[in-house]
Write a structure and sequence with these properties.
Elements: H1 3-25, H2 49-76, H3 120-123, E1 151-152, H4 154-159, E2 166-170, E3 173-181, H5 184-198, H6 211-220, E4 232-235, H7 236-249, H8 255-270, E5 278-283, H9 291-309, H10 311-324, H11 327-339, H12 347-360, H13 376-387
Parallel strand pairs: 1-2, 3-5
Antiparallel strand pairs: 2-3, 4-5
Helix pairs in contact: 1-2, 5-8, 9-10, 9-12, 10-12, 11-12
Length: 393
């Protein structure tokens, strides 16, 4: 029974004790109590009045103590109502029924009023919060795997002098990714091995040079690693081949080359499948390369980026090189580029460099008519051939 029935039991017991006490105090009219009877106050089997009262008082005290003990046990052992223990047949307050389904009432107590509110802080068990395997991951884990480098215009790129290597995109042609290095040494460490495979004359095209062979090749050309190239440009196909050869031959790439590899993979993922990408680079100015030279180099490399990524522009350049330039014009550029260390046997490379020097290199310290042994008028005519009809972005 719930708390109400228990209370009734306690009350009934106490009323019985009261009636027993009243009956003990009332004189009896039994035969043994008739005046003059031999049993009055002294007969065998009868207690004297004072001893009978003491016995009744002792019995009453024992009954009261027993009743109190039973009541205490009733409350302690959970027979009676406890606010922190659910009744039999009632779901634990911690057991939440399915949505829209109410918990069943206690057995034997239909329609019983709800238990009084509990002090949750005092009675609740310590709460242990476990990670939810289906919960959304932290915000940083949901970011796209390939962060899109900010697009900048050519003037903005010229003005940017980063304190650490950075990758950006050309606003006019987002397929062109620009690597800016704080120093020429960092640029050389990242890209010289690629130059050896792809462009430099007299070096193998089917394998990568290890560190010792690369350092020896640079010394034999009378160059330093930092200034072997002041700017670099490579298309995605050549870069993919470079990294595939490194893996095939187990060439240990240095940290700067690994950084370029990661930037290349990110660039490849940001451009639609089937479209070519280009990675071009330059470094911050110093005593070997002033600001004007750096700006000219960046513009020169942007021209290469267009050649690699704009099929119509590439077709135009190749058509002018092959069909409109005379052989002596082409040979003039081959001789110039050969002296600069380029592979003269690569006709596509020759056409690409001729275009970049004629159209995208305004600094005469890098290119002028005297570099190709022609007159100013002859170089102006070749420049106009390249510019006319060129589909620039």
């Amino acid at each position: 029974m719930e708390g109400g029935s228990g209370d009734d039991t306690v009350r009934l017991t106490r009323a019985g004790l009261a009636r027993s006490a009243a009956q003990a105090a009332t004189p009896t009219t039994s035969r043994s109590e008739v005046p003059g009877s031999p049993a009055h106050g002294s007969g065998r089997g009868e207690l004297p009045p004072h001893r009978g009262g003491a016995v009744l008082a002792g019995l009453l005290a024992l009954l009261i103590l027993a009743t109190a003990g039973v009541a205490a046990l009733w409350w302690r052992e959970g027979i009676g109502p406890r606010e922190d223990r659910p009744a039999a047949g009632v779901a634990s307050p911690d057991a939440v029924p399915p949505a829209g389904i109410a918990p069943p009432p206690a057995a034997g107590a239909p329609g019983r009023p709800a238990d009084p509110p509990r002090d949750e802080a005092a009675t609740a068990a310590p709460l242990v919060i476990l990670p939810d395997p289906l919960a959304a991951p932290p915000a940083e884990a949901t970011r796209p795997p390939h962060a899109d480098p900010p697009p900048l215009s050519e003037p903005e790129l010229v003005a940017l002098l980063p304190a650490e290597p950075r990758v950006l995109r050309l606003r006019e042609n987002p397929r062109v990714f620009i690597l800016l290095f704080p120093t020429l040494e960092e640029q050389g460490a990242a890209l010289n091995r690629m130059a050896a495979l792809i462009e430099k004359a007299g070096l193998p095209r089917d394998r990568l040079l290890d560190d010792d062979a690369l350092a020896r090749a640079i010394r034999e050309q009378g160059e330093a690693a930092a200034t072997w190239y002041l700017g670099h440009d490579y298309n995605g196909s050549d870069l993919a081949r470079f990294f595939a050869l490194a893996e095939r031959d187990r060439i240990a790439l240095n940290p700067a080359e690994l950084w370029v590899r990661d930037r290349f993979h990110e660039a490849r993922a940001l451009v639609a499948a089937g479209d070519e990408v280009a990675l071009i680079s330059t470094a911050n100015p110093d005593h070997r390369m002033d600001h004007a030279m750096r700006a000219a180099i960046l513009r020169h490399e942007i021209g290469h980026g267009h050649f690699f990524t704009l099929p119509a522009l590439r077709a135009h350049v190749l058509q002018v090189w092959r069909e409109r330039f005379q052989e002596r014009d082409r040979q003039a550029f081959r001789s110039f580029l050969g002296r600069e260390g380029y592979d003269e046997s690569n006709e596509t490379l020759m056409a690409n460099e001729a275009m970049a020097y004629l159209v995208f290199t305004p600094d005469p310290r890098f290119f002028s008519a005297r570099h190709v042994g022609r007159t100013e008028a002859e170089v102006a005519r070749l420049r106009e051939m390249m510019r006319s009809g060129m589909p620039l972005p």
